Amino acid sequence: MSLFHRKPRPIDYDPALQQPAVRRSICNGEMTVGFIDMKTGKFTDLMMVDGEKGLAEFCRAIGVQPEDIQTIY
Predict the structure, then answer these.
(1) pTM of the predicted model, to two decimals?
(2) Domains of the chain: which residue ranges?
(3) How far apart are CA 34 and CA 56, in angstroms?
(4) Which residues contact 31 (CB under 8 A, 6 or more apart)?
């Protein structure tokens, strides 16, 4: 077993308190996924993703459709 191959951890979030979102940079297209706190509106980043494939993996991990993800610029 290699030390560099780990199983992806499940992502836990509370849909009543958090909304999944992707923050995209206008300058370089960098994408960071995370959650928006519904009470405060604060974005908490979880991880950087590389393009639509990474975004699709994030959606699959939390059980939502890509069109349900809010985009922040």
Answers:
(1) 0.79
(2) 18-65
(3) 13
(4) 22, 23, 24, 25, 48, 49, 50, 51, 54, 55
CA proximity to 47, closest of 29, 33, 67, 64: 33
Rounded Cα–Cα distance for residues 19 and 37 (Å): 7
d(CA 20, CA 35): 4
Which pLDDT tens digit goes with each residue over 18-72?
999 999 999 998 999 999 999 999 999 999 998 889 999 999 989 999 899 999 9
| 3-class SS string, 11-71 | CCCCCCCEEEEEEECCCCCCEEEEEEECCCCCEEEEEEECHHHHHHHHHHHHCCCHHHCEE
